[in-house]
Amino acid sequence: MTKIRHEPVAPTRTERLAPGAEIDPHRHDDHQIVYAGRGVLAITTSAGSWVAPATRAIWVPAGTVHAHQAHGELELHLVGLPENENPLGLDTPTVLAVAPLLRELLLAHTRTLDDGSPERARLRAVLLDELRASPQQPLHLPWPAAPQLRSLCAILRADPADDRTLTALGRQVGASDRTLSRLFKSDLGMTFPQWRTQLRLHHALVLLAENTPVTAVAHRCGWSSASAFIDVFRRTFGHTPGAHQSRDQAG
Fold first, then answer.
1. Most buried of the four, 46, 108, 147, 153, by CB within 10 Å?
2. What stretch of H or E contains 39?
3. Of 120, 140, 160, which residue sits at a domain end?
4. 5 by DSSP, 3-state: which?
């Protein structure tokens, strides 16, 4: 059983993690904003996983047990906020859009020491204002509790390119497609196609962070063609996979 580390204060700082590096399950008494200025960050809790590239940040509420994993060369920016200061009013991990101004504020806030100056206080105030205005993004990949659904999701997580129907997958895990469809909606709050698309997008972000060519990413994640993958990626993230890789490499 993994021991959960308790860190009373969520520090504000910048740190770098090598590709594949992990931070074991831990929790803070403070809230935390986690932003990957370079690379892709995955945060996992008992409820599922959240993946954030450089255009997204993750809000982690106080007390949430979570683990980090780096994909690509990760430059991690961490902002801690006291438990009684919740500018977003959120009690579950959430992915937030990071516009250019918010990105620069996060970088500036985490790369300098808190000297208690009025300038520092103003920087923090503007940062919180921008956070309040940041749209929430549906980048959560929930993980089921129902045993049959967990088996099915594990099959697809091991091979996101598996394109079998729900009926075919149901035969392998011993459940009807009607039962599984009901479980997806009741247990995960989304349909089977929605969950599988989310899984594939999460896997695509990881592969892109590892500089995998776009065509290979499309194939390994189960899209019928590179153009189909590019279309879904653009509609979800607002830019193409190629632009995403270029932006990440530029840091």
1. 153
2. strand 31-45
3. 140
4. strand
Same-domain status, 118 and 166: no
Candidates 100, 71, 79, 77; CA nearest to 31 is: 79
Q: Is the domain of 80 the same as that of 162?
A: no
CA dihedral 145, 149, 155, 160 (to 10 degrees): -90
CB 48 within 8 A of CB 140: yes
Task: List, for residues 18-35, the tens digit of each pLDDT value.
Answer: 888 888 899 989 999 999
Q: Which residues contact 170 (CB under 8 A, 6 or more apart)?
A: 152, 176, 177, 179, 180
Q: What is the pTM of this model?
A: 0.76
Amino acid of residue 5: R
pLDDT tens readout for residues 95-123: 888 888 999 999 999 988 888 889 998 99
Residues 15 and 82 placed together within one structural domain of the fold: yes
**In sequence order, what are the beta bridge partners of 50?**
43, 140
